[in-house]
Design the sequence.
């Protein structure tokens, strides 16, 4: 089983990488670019067949390591 | 003489300057690898044997996930021991990456409890999205709470070099900053050449309230982004030929303050 965890910056938290990428894209002529946001995705293979448990486990992973709640939201998807 | 632990793991790279800063002042410092305190090595060491633990700068675990996050999550196996260590009023300090580790571990800002399960702050990507590497000016604003900086007078301006990509301090709760000011937990703030609080490039990362360093409520856990160990001697200051300041640089009193406390 695979879980996909997306870590993104909370609304209102500055995203310097996104801002810089936007600037670079506009300089390359993509003038229709209004905003760029970056996010991080972890694909985690689990040796577990119970879907409910793996979501809980992924939440624990976010709490313990993958996200910092001060600036991050996360989204968990279970892929079979 | 009280023992000092300079804690390293894969990717730390400022441990030598930190170790030497203590040694030059006749402190009893020792390098300890994280595996030694996590009982993953035959050469075991115990946190309780040290009066001071310093986490040096570097790129622990390659800065993967978030700067300091992996180091902190490995240390969190010793939560109980760390809480005891802090509650016994021993010293726990972090410089640069070490500061990021202490924030991710939940021992800073350290309001109300020694170690908070939920993270209350973060050192996130600099506003410039650049690795900012240059001398920075800091004002020591602490009124005496922070044990690590007692040798600096209040409002003393020092030059410590900064070298980081993730140094912007952001607090979780809305009133955290207010509480920290009230508790005398702010230690160093970035200033311009006149000693005023200014924006970029004087504040290299966009940090809240121009904060460069903070301590916990007890004053015995301290984190700082710029590097005092890199200005132990005056000749590593950028202006040392123009502004003669004797043998020692601005960083020395920080290590001396630690030794004052642990060796009495």
Sequence:
């Amino acid at each position: 089983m695979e879980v996909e965890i997306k870590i993104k910056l909370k609304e209102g938290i500055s995203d310097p990488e996104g801002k810089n990428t936007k600037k670079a894209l506009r300089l390359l002529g993509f003038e229709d670019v209004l905003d760029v946001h970056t996010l991080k995705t972890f694909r985690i293979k689990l040796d577990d067949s119970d879907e409910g448990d793996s979501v809980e486990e992924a939440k624990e992973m976010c709490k313990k390591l993958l996200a910092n709640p001060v600036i991050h939201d996360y989204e968990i998807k279970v892929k079979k | 003489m009280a023992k000092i632990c300079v804690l390293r793991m894969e990717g730390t790279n400022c441990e030598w300057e930190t170790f030497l800063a203590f040694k030059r002042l006749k402190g009893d410092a020792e390098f300890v690898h994280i595996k030694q305190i996590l009982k993953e090595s035959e050469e075991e060491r115990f946190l309780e044997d040290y009066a001071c633990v310093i986490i040096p700068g570097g790129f622990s675990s390659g800065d993967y996930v978030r700067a300091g996050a992996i180091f902190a999550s490995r240390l969190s196996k010793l939560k109980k021991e760390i809480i005891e260590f802090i509650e016994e009023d021993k010293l726990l300090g972090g410089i640069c990456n070490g500061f990021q580790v202490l924030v991710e571990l939940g021992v800073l800002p350290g309001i109300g409890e020694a170690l908070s399960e939920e993270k209350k702050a973060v050192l996130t990507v600099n506003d410039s999205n650049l690795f900012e590497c240059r001398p920075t000016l800091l004002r020591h604003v602490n009124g005496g709470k922070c044990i690590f900086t007692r040798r600096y007078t209040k409002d003393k301006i020092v030059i410590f070099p900064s070298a980081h990509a993730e140094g912007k301090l952001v607090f979780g709760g809305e009133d955290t900053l207010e509480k920290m000011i009230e508790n005398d937990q702010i230690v160093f703030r970035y200033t311009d050449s006149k000693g005023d609080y200014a924006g970029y490039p004087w504040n290299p990362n966009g940090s809240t309230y121009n904060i460069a360093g903070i301590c916990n409520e007890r004053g015995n856990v301290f984190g700082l982004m710029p590097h005092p160990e890199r200005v132990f001697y005056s000749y590593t200051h950028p202006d040392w030929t123009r502004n003669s300041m004797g043998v020692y640089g601005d960083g020395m009193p920080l290590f001396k303050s630690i030794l004052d406390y642990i060796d009495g």
